[in-house]
Design brief:
The protein is α+β, with helices and mostly antiparallel strands and 142 residues long. It has 1 helix and 8 strands. β7 and β8 form a beta hairpin.
């Protein structure tokens, strides 16, 4: 009799652990998907001031997405990102500004490394273009 009671108690404990694990799985996970992860500014003037592009992403997961950090490859590039959790199905942004002043003329390529709570590797955003002499820059990207 005691053996049956012990077996029933162990079975109940296992069932509780299984249900708890299933409940944790049901909470879902965030996932991030960018509209695009690259942007080409084309030709920009060396003395024309900063140029900016806004990268848009969607939380394609089932739990809130948080941008933990966005780190630029150099001081001439500055990312500003959504700091509030992004609900599933909603959009967020990472606005990247590049200051060409003081940079060498010619082609450039800069990166921003993005870390989220979605797990996996850091994502990389890339901006580029060509710095030319002068002060006129094309229309800003959105």
């Amino acid at each position: 009799m005691k053996l049956r009671l012990l077996i029933a108690a162990i079975a109940a404990a296992i069932a509780c652990v299984a249900l708890t694990s299933a409940a944790d799985t049901d909470k879902g996970k965030p996932a991030i998907e960018f509209d695009s992860r690259t942007h080409d500014f084309g030709e920009i003037g060396a003395e024309g001031g900063p140029v900016t592009h806004t990268f848009t992403f969607t939380n394609t997961g089932t739990a809130p997405l948080i941008i933990v950090s966005a780190t630029a490859s150099c001081g001439c590039t500055r990312p500003v990102y959504t700091t509030k959790p992004v609900k599933p199905g909603k959009k967020g942004t990472i606005k990247v500004s590049f200051l060409p002043s003081g940079q060498p003329l010619g082609e450039f390529s800069k990166t921003v490394r993005v870390r989220t709570n979605a797990g996996g590797k850091r994502l990389t955003l890339q901006i580029g273009g060509v710095i030319v002499p002068g002060a006129v820059n094309p229309a800003q990207s959105k």
